[in-house]
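Friendly challenge for the regulars: who can give me the structure tokens for this chain first? No prize, just bragging rights.
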Amino acid sequence: MTSHLLVGGAALLGLLVGSFLNVVVWRVPRGLSVVSPPSACSSCGHRVRAVDNVPVLSWLLLRGRCRDCSARISIRYPLVELGTAVLFAGTAAWAGPTWHLPVYLYLAAVAVALALIDVDVHRLPDAIVKPSYVVVAGLLVAASALEGDWQALLRAAVGAVALYVVYAALAVARPGGMGWGDVKLAGVLGMALAWHSWSALAVGAFAAFLLGGVVGVALMAVRRAGRGTAMPFGPYMLAGAALGLVVGVPTVQWYLGVALA
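First reply, four minutes later:
Bragging rights claimed.
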């Protein structure tokens, strides 16, 4: 019962956070405040009423149109809300009622925002990435203290520096191939992955390049991209990190079992 309540509560929280992330994804790349002014229709300028700001449900009741001018409201809004809810529920089911659940819920929210922004404008804004160092570090310190696992915190520090250095070296070695936004994000992800385990860090780091390479080859195969086509790498870093957390330990155990057999 407790696990069901936790997952259900996380899903509900995800719906609310997803609604806010829609604001973040639109405003942060444009240098606008995410607090004010209140949300308004981009076509007629009318403020969105509170009753029309209920995640997913309002979009369905309005049939995807503005109440005042009938302009279409992109389906991406409810999809982001639903996607965040599913991601939060999955994170809660994976982590369980632990002290480190908050940090991974935070990272799930940041992942949604950064992935969409990177796809839209090919940029990972400092306004999101830099504060994440403080938030993630603070939450991990609290988790280590409450769980009595200071060794995990040491791993987190080493992981943050290690992944940052690797990405920085790639950015210097191949200017234009790796953005500095990716480098900054690498430090945050390295911190969270290594706190969980070295296996999560190793698999998460490798999976990012594997996913990026597979998608890149697929796009070139269908002639949707060429060798010189710029591709946002942030989404692959975030997806790779998720894989590292979920399957990192069993993957490394399987690999070592095969290699040492």
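Residues 99-261 form one domain. The first helix runs from residue 2 to 27. Your move, everyone else.
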